[in-house]
Amino acid sequence: MPLLGTAAWAGALLGAAGPRWLAVPLAAVLVLALVACRRRRAVLPLLLGVGLALLSAVTVTGVRQEQVVHGALSPLAERGSTVTAVGTVTSDPVALTAGRGDRVMWRLRVTALDTARGSVRLSAPVLVFASATSRRVDLGASVRVRGRLAPADDGDVAALLLATGDPVVVRTPGVWWRGAAAVRASLRRSVSHRPDDQRALVPALVVGDDAGMPDRLETDFRTTGLTHLLAVSGTNLTLLVGFLLTLARWCRVRGRWLAAVGGLGIVCFVLLARTEPSVLRAAVMGTVALVGLGHDGRRRGLRALGVAVLVLVLLDPTLARSAGFVLSVLATAGILVLGPGFRDALARWSPRWLAEAIAVPLAAQLACTPVVAAISGQVSLVAVAANVLAAPAVGPATVLGLAGGLLGLVWDPLGRLAGTAAAWSVAWIITVAEHGADLPAAAVGWATGAVSLAVLTVLVTALAVAGPALLRRPVTGVGSCLVLVTAVLVRPGDLGWPPDGWVLVACDVGQGDALAVRAGPRSAVVVDAGPDAAAVDECLDRLGIEQVPLLVLTHFHADHVDGLAGVAEGRQVSEVWVSRMLDPPEGVDRVRAAGLTLRVPAAGTAVTAGAVRLQVLWPSTPTPTRGPGDGSTANDASVVLLADVGGLRLLLTGDIEPHAQSVLAQTLPGLDVDVLKMPHHGSSHQDEPWLLSLRPEVVFVSVGADNDYGHPAASVLDPLTAAGAQVFRTDRDGDLAVVVEDGRPVVVTH
After folding, report:
1. Using one digit for the tens of pLDDT, what is the confidence trace for 439-481?
2. Sign (positive/negative) of CA torsion 380, 386, 387, 393?
3. Domain 502-622+631-749 sits in which CATH superfamily?
4. Contact, 108 vs 161, CB < 8 A?
5. DSSP state at residue 113
6. What angle do CA 13, 23, 284 make, to 5 degrees?
């Protein structure tokens, strides 16, 4: 069964990536293999099963893509047709913030469509975007909504529907959906009196309702490998249904009735957490875990896992390309295959309960590490310890949280009592996440290229094979733990970093800008905060920055301001300069919410902060407005700084585009700098003569690996390189530091 599940998974991937005719050669290969093995009777059923699973998945995937991507909605979406759609709401509304006002997004399974050319009966998923002030729609309701269709980039939906008015409810949700909504609302009420972190985490832990989760807490959970607690996972179902089965046994329920209780528990869990693909996947994986807990668990669990993968892929082929699905399968397989060996090895010299507590997260983490690294670009070194420490609180928090939701339907004070107990439990989990994330090397960066991931996979495989042998004896087991503790407390990559005498560091924060100009021993002027609070916080920690006399946010795009909390984390920020263009609004709101005093500097403003002298060069003229929410307008309003430090001249340009660059060329002819921060991450949209006229010796490009924008453009970098400039990129070189040697800039990479 695991082999058949793998074959179906491969078929879904082939069907999604390959052409439609791919099924023909696959069928031919299957026939030839059957003919070649016709005398080996034991092999024939296996080959037949593998071939059928593969071909079925390829066919189902092709048919689904044809229905969704090339169905009746496709030509209408290409033309931008205005339609009236009737269908069933299949997801809760999600609040979005766009450049032109707040909106909500929800999924709709369209069953009828009224167009200018008539009515169409169909069944297709669409993504609806509506005004946040429009009437709320409930999951399971049938609605009629009018709007304009647009093509969808995601093959998971047939089109986008931009609503132009309020949706009209045709039929209210069924009693099951109303009951589930009442329990979810009661759950939120039961913890509404608790602190923000606890109030947000309890619903996330119980039913995956993560609305209102603070960004800082999500970052800490990601760093410590506890993210699976914030989403609906098999762990949720295993805990809740396991508790329900325990209660049933206490009530002397036995045999088939016990299975019926378990099945009812699974159905109720799915209704509470919503019937989205991720929830169904989690329910199936949780069921596999329950099977694996019984007699002959490894064999039965692997067989159940194979069945689960086969069925899920055939029902919904898009799961084959879902990161959540991959992680669920790998974690479950890791626990079933690696867990018993780790447990038995540890149980030779430690209590069995402790051995199991360590073996389960260790096996799951090892199995998932290469995929997590490919997604996040980092490997958590504290994930196993964090999961072991958090585990005792997860069960009580989950069960008490659900009890709070159910009891609150009967009597609010009773629900609050259970909710308070659940909040106390999650307080411990939050403490583990926060303290674990604060460790010097809680997570280490890992490149996402094929070679790096292959090396990591080999290392993980070696650890999985050698793990039981290392853990079998106290000396090697405890010694391995001490090595890991040492690695967490002393980050090896930070030895010798930052380099002595550094004057400028461009932090590797992904697709965004975050620069530190040294003002003193533990002080720096910070220019932009990047898109990720954790990344900029870690970079400044590595530099030992405790004081920020001046923070400059060149403009309000997310890749320059979303990491603001990371700059302020544990540091004193004395003054903040911002762009005068208050666009986009969501970026402005995020900065204002930080509670810092903001100042808009005028062109020509000069200030000295420790060893740094800064002068504002731009904007000096009114910035042309191309329309509300236009990205180029905000880019061209970036604050441009000329910094003098250590005898070097640094030009920090934000995201200015050719208009601002040409004006600067006219107003400051002959400007000569030592170091240039490339505007707009090396976009192809540049004034090349101006860049060359600056005659920089060093050019920094702050850019994210494998970004979707084509940054940086070779057409921009090549002329600079040909002119003698040294070009460095954060996506390839990591953090970039400038030191001064003989009055000239020298770059050291991290």
Report:
1. 877 777 777 777 888 888 899 899 888 889 888 888 887 888 7
2. negative
3. Ribonuclease Z/Hydroxyacylglutathione hydrolase-like (3.60.15.10)
4. yes
5. E
6. 40
